[in-house]
Amino acid sequence: MAVKPLKVGCLGMGWWSDVLADAIKRSGKLEIVSCFTRSQEKREAFAKKYGCKTAPSYDAMLENRSIEAIINTTPNNVHAETTRQAAAAGKHVFLDKPIANTVADAKALTEACRKAKVVLALGYQRRKESHFRWVKKKIDDGVFGKLVNAEANISRDRLGQFDLASWRYTAEGMPGGVMLQIGIHYADVLTYLMGPIVAVRGALAQLVLPGDNPDIASLLIEHENGALSTLNACYASASEYYLMNIYGKEATAYYDLHGGLRWLRRGSTKSEPVKCEKNDTIAEELEEFAGAVRGEGEPEMDGEKGTRSLAVLLAGIKSAREGRRVEVAEMIKG
């Protein structure tokens, strides 16, 4: 018997809500029943585009018994309250990263979902990319040997897309600017591949974009296994560019956006290309969420992991401001 699609309500109608809704349509394992945002114009446009009904309020959406889960793309600073409300109504929650702007909020919304026995999943699609899955399997199989170092860069050109009125580009809405907005993705990939992060040193700069938030950020990362990594995030580059190099005692992997994945084993003098088919990471994470709601496994990124991910970035921001090494545990303890 075919499993019925998970019926969801979409909360928040920014550009990312459409990205998730498009993935829901591609998947077919979820169904958008309703949508709500404070702007009537935006919610009507979303409803027309995705064939769902508008809700007159968030409370009305939560009262709709046909809705099983909420796809939450609201601003970071209201994640705690909107997720708590969903949990209280018995709705499962798929929440876009970061989990919140503060560790206290992250812990509170995670606990609310735990107490209500609803699934909480965080959107961290980058770790699911096929090239990183390939590297992870090789690491787990012992092919890389002892991991020693990594370097990562995630850069985008935001000059032509910058909206000073958007919460995503303000210090209040997105503390730490580019590092919390997009650097968090590759901090997560570094955790996924290299192991837990225990301490960071950070630096922030504002060089090109207007406003009150950094558009350049760098982290020096210490992993639990002793390895060191560097992470650079940029909103002021001439083009979009991603890089992730993983160095082990027995092998090295080189990935970049334009060149794809290559790897080099000890004793070789020439790297070899690795063919990785592009996968639909966003649809995959949403389907994983739907499966977890149906009792089929757990989300790869849950509230606890999302909280630690946030703590890493907040440690980097604190380090940049105070000019010292900051342990992740310090941020988690508050």
How would you portray this structure in words?
- The protein is of the alpha/beta class and 334 residues long.
- The chain has 2 domains: 6-125 and 283-300, Rossmann fold, CATH 3.40.50; 126-279 and 310-333, Dihydrodipicolinate Reductase, domain 2 (2-Layer Sandwich).
- Helix content is 36%, strand content 28%.
- The chain has 10 helices and 15 strands.
- The strands form 2 sheets. It has a 9-stranded mixed beta sheet with strand order 14-13-12-11-7-10-9-8-15.
- Helix 4 (79-88) links the parallel strand 4 (69-72) and strand 5.
- Helix 4 (79-88) runs parallel beside helix 5 (103-116).
- The N and C termini lie far apart (48 Å).
- The model has no long low-confidence stretch (mean pLDDT 96).
* Whole-angstrom Rg: 20 Å
Question: What does the overall shape look like?
Answer: globular
Please report the number of helical segments: 10
Q: Assign the CATH topology of the largest domain.
A: Dihydrodipicolinate Reductase, domain 2
Instruction: Give the name of the CATH architecture of the largest domain.
Output: 2-Layer Sandwich
What is the helical fraction, as a range of percent? 25-40%
Q: Give the mean pLDDT.
A: 96
Q: What fraction of the residues are assigned to beta strands by DSSP?
A: 25-35%
How many angstroms does the end-to-end distance come to?
A: 48 Å
User: Tell me about the biggest sheet?
Assistant: 9 strands, mixed
Number of strands: 15
Query: CATH superfamily of the largest domain, called what?
Result: Dihydrodipicolinate Reductase, domain 2
- In terms of per-residue confidence, which ranges show pLDDT below 50 for 5 or more consecutive residues? none
Pairing-aware structural class of the strands and helices?
alpha/beta
Q: Largest sheet, order of strands side by side?
A: 14-13-12-11-7-10-9-8-15
> Class of the largest domain, according to the CATH hierarchy?
Alpha Beta
Q: What are the secondary-structure elements, in order, as H or E? A: EHEHEHEHEHEHEHEEEEEEEHHEH
Tally of individual domains: 2
